[in-house]
Amino acid sequence: MNQEGETHDFVLVLQWQAGDLEAFGEIYRRCHGPLKYYVRRITNTPETADDLLQEIWLKALKEVKRLRSPEAFRVWLYRIARNEVFQQHRRDRKWQAVEDSIQLSASEAGEPENETLFTAANAARLHAAMEKLSTEHREVLALRFMESLSYKDIASVMQCDVGTVRSRIHYAKCAVRRILEEHPHDD
Length: 187
What we know:
- With 187 residues, this protein is an all-alpha fold.
- It has helices at 3-17, 21-43, 46-63, 73-92, 123-131, 135-146, 151-158, 162-182.
- 67% of the residues lie in helices and 0% in strands.
């Protein structure tokens, strides 16, 4: 998101916090599509995602006045979304905690590798490959490449260290690359 968009969001959040429902409507229009994509990526089921989106927006409506840093709205909203998704997994008893067992080597702990953007022609294959990834890997890729969040913001959303984010992005990209190489002509 560019500086102008972030400033506009900041003003809209302040207006929403002051009770302006038109400002909420504008934020909803700007954020709902990307948020829906994110929730669908980490739940992997459209029906569950749609139900959760309602819960996420209701929670945001109830809690927006408590948001102390309106400039951090997107991170705050995605943290709510993530928490709702994981609460749903626990309620359904489908979610099993996954411990990160990958230790970053000194060379991996440095700067993130040069990230390559995927073309529109590869979008369908990429989405199919992402369906095969773990929840953590789908989530981190969606936040980084679909939402353009920084590593620091992703760490804040996921409530983990930046090193963990780097590791997950690295291994998720490797997994996607491997899936795409194993199935070069799947559409």
